[in-house]
Amino acid sequence: MIRDPNVPIPERTDQDEPNVPRVFLREPGWRVGMKHGSEREFCHNIAPGEEAYHRLSDGELFVHSADERLCLPCADRRGLLHFEPKGLGKARDIIELDGPAQPGDTFKVIDPKALD
Ligand SMILES: [Zn+2]
């Protein structure tokens, strides 16, 4: 979106939500790059509603592989970008192990559902 130059930029405070989310690229073989200068370089994807490849602009961040270069909106449409950090996985049920009470006792596995 192009900002209207006649509309003043609103003051931002530390409490404002950022306009840009955290972005993660985890696809093997893909890297992030930045377009430098006025040399004509194109995104290798035709955006919906357009009929031609669009140019990357000076200073624009893009993702690239050995074969392709995509602007961030096209990379998002392709499903290459993620907006959440990798989690530690789904929480698992806790299994309680009761230690042996007496010498010679064995461990006893207690199903947590049986405690409810
Ligand atoms: Zn694009």
Automatic annotation (TrEMBL):
Residues 97-116 are annotated as: Disordered. It comes from the Bacteria. This is Uncharacterized protein.
